[in-house]
Amino acid sequence: MFQLNKRGESMVPSETVQALLAFAGVAIVFLLFYQLFVPGFNKVEKTSEVYFDLAIEKIDAAKANPGETKEISALSSDDGPKYYLIYFGEKNYLELAPKEIFIASSNTPNQLCVCSIDDETIKCDYCKGIEKPITLNENPESEFSILLNKVVKVIFEDGHYKFKITEESNE
Q1: Number of domains in the chain
Q2: CA–CA distance, 55 with 151 (Å, rounded to integer)
Q3: CA–CA separation, 59 vs 69, rounded Å?
Q4: Does a structural domain hold residue 90?
């Protein structure tokens, strides 16, 4: 039972105060370790995710409106990470250079991915299997990569998607 002071108010025992301070100290240490070891916002991941969502939105819009051209905007080209729109066709990997090998997240045919290279770390975490094949600049080659510093025009006609790389945007 708590003791009362002269005014009839309860007095908190010193053991209770010490226990509360100890608990608060442990909680603060836990939060500091949590912030230290749990990664926060990752700009490369978020950029890849947003660009992938945009690309899929434009591809779906092109299929919904055959013959109509849709544009996937260019990313600004700075000295930071490089982003690629990669179509794997029937394969699940694409080698651009000896140290630039992109691997799809699954063996699904017609897989389209947004991949990034940041400090020699290659990631292709945002991928989707597309129902119909894709050609780039009328080239029937089954796989390709596009460095995302250009505008990509998308059109759906003749039962497949056609991508074309351009310098400027019409939208």
Answers
A1: 2
A2: 11
A3: 10
A4: yes
Q: Whole-angstrom Cα distance, residue 73 to residue 166?
A: 10
| Coil, helix or strand at residue 117 | strand
Q: Is residue 80 part of a domain?
A: yes
DSSP state of 76: P
Mean pLDDT, residues 117-139? 86
| DSSP H or E stretch at residue 10 | strand 10-11
- Do 9 and 24 share a domain, yes or no? yes
User: Both 139 and 55 in a single domain?
Assistant: yes
SS3 130: coil
Does 130 lie in the same domain as 73? Answer: yes
Q: What is the pLDDT of residue 29?
A: 83
Tens-digit pLDDT profile for residues 9-48: 655 666 777 778 888 888 888 877 777 777 677 888 888 8
* Closest C-alpha to 145, from 91, 106, 107: 91
pLDDT in tens, 45-95: 888 899 999 999 999 999 999 999 999 888 776 678 888 888 888 877 788
97 within a domain of the structure (yes/no): yes
Side chain identity at residue 124, one-letter code: C
Residue 13 sits in the same domain as residue 64: no
Closest CA to 52 of 106, 118, 116: 116
